[in-house]
Amino acid sequence: MKRYTNTEDSAEDLTTYWGRLKHFQNIISPANIFYSPEQLSEYGKILESVDKDPSIRTKYTDQQLWKMRYVVDSNIHPQLKEPVNILFRTSTFVPVNVPLAFGLAVLPPTPINQLLAQSANQTYNFMFNYCNRNASNVFSNEMLAFSYGGAVSSAVVGSLGTSWLFKKLNAPALLIRACPLFGVLIANTFNLFFARYPDFQKGIQVFDDETQEPLPGLSKEAAKIAFFRTLVTRYILPLPMFIPPIVIYYMKQAKCYPQGRAIGLALDLSLSGFFLYCGLSVGIGIFPQYLKVNPTDLESQYQNLTNSKGNKIKTIVFNKGL
Questions:
Q1: What is the pLDDT, as a whole number, of residue 221?
Q2: b vs e for 252-281, b when ≥16 Cβ sit within 10 Å of the residue's Cβ?
Q3: pLDDT tens digits, residue range 138-193?
Q4: How far is Cα 19 from Cα 64, in angstroms, rounded to an integer?
Q5: Which residue stretches, if any, does this entry annotate as coiled coil (predicted)?
Q6: At what angle do helices 261-284 and 17-27 cross, to 10 degrees?
Q7: Which residues of the chain have pLDDT under 50?
Q8: pTM value?
Q9: Closest CA to 148 of 84, 195, 180
């Protein structure tokens, strides 16, 4: 474990996938839910002071300090420095999504089930996107309404459309069961695009990696990089959610699925929660939350800059969002 300092993003090595995987498992842990706003505020003050006041470090081990950091990072917006609404924090993503995953992947994909499940899922996804957005830009009510409507309608149309097509083609039953997945993938694209549209128009704030100082102006190129990296993650996240129906299908074929309705429901929800947790860890661990790029990857205004220390800026960092 690394020695704790405020300049370090994680106790793990974020340059490796396995380091990011361990890092995000700590971030999304549901155990981080059970902290009051007062505790979060206290942890934040301790972490801010640890580099300035050596006496504080003698009171806590590095393990304790990193634990505080993970609790803060999973509940507090990294730019706004305010608690995210409890339903849309990374620490509550798995428990909140278990019933949504059950509705999408386990219930029979009838039109009414898909309509209700896709609407509920995209409503949650939209709010999660908004609450964990890059805070450089302000969203108008019209833009929020437009993006929400586009996400929900694209999910429903994509899901019902693929279901109709597969039935017309006499596709295998398992493929028809996966129709909600296509709706989710289509909607994830629209959902993320609409949520990030102001970023494309105005750009996002970028920082010097050495001093963490904000650089002048906003970068549209950084916004594009953040969007596409996040989109890859959003395509991977729902995939494990559709493994439970396959497991359940073959369990029933092998006649080893529980007979009792309550036990069967408990098994379905447990499988949904387990694979959702695995998918979230694997998906968001692909890229670090704070991306580092060469100034030549961004607009010309960010090239040949020097920071407050008089050093040429060689690496620029920015929050890609979740």
A1: 94
A2: eeeeebeeeeeeeeebbbebbbebbbebbb
A3: 667 777 787 788 778 888 888 888 888 888 878 777 677 777 777 778 877 877 88
A4: 19
A5: none
A6: 130
A7: none
A8: 0.72
A9: 195
Radius of gyration (Cα) for the chain, nearest Å? 22
Tokens of 193: 């695009």
Q: How far is CA 254 from CA 67, 106, 229, 263, 313, in A?
A: 44, 18, 40, 17, 61
Is beta strand 316-319 parallel, antiparallel or unpaired with respect to 290-293? Answer: antiparallel
Q: Which two tokens stand for residue 162?
A: 């693929």
pLDDT at 125: 81
Q: In whole angstroms, what is the distance from residue 207 CA to residue 318 CA?
A: 6
